[in-house]
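Same chain as my last thread, 146 residues:
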Amino acid sequence: MKKCLAFLLVAFSSFTLADECAVTIESNDMMQFNLKEITVPASCDSFEVTLKHTGQLDKKYMGHNWVLSTTADAQEIVNGALKAGPDNNYLPPGDERIIAATKIIGGGEQDTITVDVAGLTAGEDYTFFCSFPGHFAIMKGAFIVN
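reply #2:
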């Protein structure tokens, strides 16, 4: 009985840790994310982010992506978004300030990316945001590694 209980505890803790190392964030036709903050345990080697667009509008009218950078770099990345254009998912190509990013998606679509947590610093100020033109003012939040 003790062996069975120990096995279940180990198995359960693995599932719990896996859940802590992943998040699904929703975007909609009202230019909103459903989360304003994402906390990532520093114990995660990687962190999976799934962006779901729960709206109905096509990506050329109401596209969204999920971009991660330091807070200090976010505005400059967004400033280059329009020039980068839709073919580059409204992100400046080769911009090393972009830590991770999904592609632009439209209503009913989703995209998943993996963030390398080992490359991040606990306590650093990170921001996630949408770089679709005009969305940054509303669609952003804190990404906390602790």
